[in-house]
Design goal:
The chain crosses the membrane at residues 12-33, 53-78, 127-151, 157-180, 237-262, 274-298. Helices cover 76% and strands 4% of the residues. By secondary structure, the chain is mainly α. The chain folds into 2 domains: 2-312, ABC transporter type 1, transmembrane domain (ABC transporter transmembrane region fold, Up-down Bundle), CATH 1.20.1560.10; 334-380, no CATH class.
């Protein structure tokens, strides 16, 4: 469902997506080229005392950095514009479809769940698109390009990448596996908080009349505590991710400096090449971390997309007539003949073979005991197509 929604609602904004890819490509190429220029400054400028070479290469680096900044700004702008447009169109579609629902569909989903689906769930899909445009597009470019440029600087130290990248993937992957169930629970917990709060707001007079304030406070505290616990579990795991990444990153950096020092001592590597290799290793690990970070957003966005799709694919049970009556007399007549009504999943009908006529100018009283179906009968008329 996530792929279907993205294809459908991002199709009108394909020029923005092309702009994101182009500018992210420019930014990534600039990021990969800068460490090589820095290595040249160290090896050919500082080591030889060539001030002119340092100034000339530094000016080139400055121009590339300015171009990188401009490309990054434009990529984020186009990505944010596409993501916000997706969210706007998706919310509008959900709102229109809910507006077509009858009482049956609203009761099936529940008003709190429909509110969550049109707000929080749409936001999750929107955030996935935004982070994909700003992070995921550049991650494979930096990873592949970083490996190529690092091997170009020194082939012997490449074994550090072979060890560091799988270790980082394994560590972050284990954290994500534990985070996914918590994110799946969070959406239903948000529904529950909305449901309790909505019931309390709509029934505030009854709650006060029967002095049930304390009981309702306890209900809300339970729902709120469940959501808080789920969010805290996910937050603790998420907070653990960055120290793990920094640990792998710092250990890898120490390994590069340690073994690179022996390479420099043996004459097999220059100082600038070592600094460039370290920069490429950091870029590769950061790109891997960004890609795994997207794996955190994807499961939650997938769940949200499924919930949105359920609303959009549900057809209203009561549809507008082909030739609706747009002009009526000032007074009309309502008549039911052998009307029977049952709620979805109910064992028996609430109304059974009910017939009556409400004439204009006459008062019609609907009398019955509690649970007899008076409210059900009255609610039938606004949703009627006749």
């Amino acid at each position: 469902m996530l792929g279907k929604l993205l294809v459908r609602y991002l199709r009108p904004y394909w020029p923005l997506l092309i702009g994101v890819v182009v500018f992210q490509l420019i930014q990534s190429i600039a990021s990969l080229y800068l460490p090589a220029l820095n290595a040249d400054i160290i090896d050919d400028g500082v080591a030889k005392g060539d001030t002119e070479f340092i100034m000339r290469t530094g000016a080139v680096m400055l121009l590339i950095t300015l171009g990188q900044i401009a490309a990054a700004i434009l990529a984020v702008y186009f990505g944010a514009k596409a993501a916000m447009a997706l969210g706007r169109d998706l919310r509008a579609s959900v709102f229109r479809r809910v507006g077509e629902f009858s009482e049956r569909e609203v009761a099936h989903f529940g008003a709190p769940s429909l509110i969550t689906r049109s707000t929080n769930d749409v936001q999750q899909v929107q955030m996935l698109v935004l982070m994909t445009c700003t992070i995921l597009v550049s991650a494979p470019i930096l990873s592949i390009g970083g490996v190529i440029m690092a091997l170009r600087e020194d082939l012997v130290l490449s074994w550090i990448m072979v060890v560091a990248v799988p270790v980082l993937l394994l560590a972050v992957g284990l954290i994500i596996v534990r985070m996914v169930p918590q994110f799946r629970k969070m959406q239903s917990r948000i529904d529950n908080v909305n449901r309790v709060l909505r019931e309390q707001l709509t029934g505030i007079r009854v709650i006060r009349a029967f002095v049930r304030e304390q009981r309702e406070r306890e209900r809300f505290e339970v729902a709120n505590e469940e959501l808080t616990d789920t969010a805290l579990r996910a937050g603790r795991l998420f907070a653990l991710m960055f120290p793990v990444v920094m640990l792998v990153l710092n250990v890898s950096s120490v390994a590069v400096l340690w073994f690179g020092a022996f390479r420099i001592e043996d004459g097999g590597m220059q100082v600038g090449s070592l600094i460039a290799f370290l920069s490429y290793l950091i870029q590769i690990l950061m790109a891997v971390m960004m890609a795994t970070f997207m794996a955190v957003l994807l499961p939650r966005a997938t769940v949200s997309a499924d919930r949105i799709g359920e609303v959009l694919e549900t057809e209203p049970s009561v549809v507008a007539p082909v030739s609706p009556i747009t002009e009526v007399a000032s007074q009309g007549e309502v008549e039911l003949r052998d009307a029977t009504f049952a709620y979805p999943g109910a064992e028996a009908a609430v109304l059974h073979e009910l017939s009556f006529r409400a004439r204009p100018g006459k008062m019609t009283a609907i009398v019955g005991s509690t649970g007899a179906g008076k409210t059900t009968l009255v609610n039938l008329f606004p949703g009627s197509s006749t």
